[in-house]
Amino acid sequence: MNERSEMLEGIRRAIGSRGSDRESDYASIRRGYHQALPIDLPECVHLFVDRLHDYDATVHFCPVEGIAATVAAVLSGRRKHSLLVPPQLPPDWMPSNFEFIRDTGLSYGHIDRSEGVLTGCAIAIAATGTIVLRHSAGEGRRALTLIPDYHLCVVFEHQIVGTVPEGIRLMSEFGRAPITTISGPSATADIEMTRIKGVHGPRTLDVILVA
Q1: What is the pTM of this model?
Q2: What is the residue-averaged pLDDT of the chain?
Q3: Were both Cys, which of 19, 36, 48, 68 would link to 95 (CB 3.0–4.6 Å)?
Q4: From edge to edge, which strands make up the β-sheet containing 130-133?
Q5: In DSSP terms, which residues pair with 161 in a beta bridge?
Q6: Which 3 state secondary structure label does DSSP give 183?
């Protein structure tokens, strides 16, 4: 069987024919890729951080009780005074000496003029350094995380999985919720192979990793 025939046969198996058992057809698809990594959680965390560094994201570490203090330190280092936040971001994440504006239907113009956004996340994937947002009330709508030039995201260690297949299985539980995946600051090299940041989302990504 040549490559063309093999590809077409694979498509036929995936689509199935009328009256075929779609579940059996789906189960018969060969899956030779890694379903999980043979590493423990600390190694997953280390891999996730390594990938984030590769993407030019900055990672800060803290315990659960230190989230607000770490947010304050990060914002001070970035010389920021105010951030937008999702409607139900936990109040104890927000230090009192900064301004946090809850998004209760802010205009795109207001979001664009902001200094940035602080959110949580749903899942993180170590192998690809990817942060997954399902845009719950604690993560904000898509516009809130795509328009601002700066994103500060809180990730808990227990949210980290090893591989994309593990992440996909968890995402399947989100139902029809919109999903955004973030792998470092937004960047593209589509134009004359010149890397440009901030084209499709925030130019700067800071991650607070909570143990």
Answers
A1: 0.82
A2: 90
A3: 68
A4: 160-161, 123-125, 130-133, 180-182
A5: 125
A6: coil
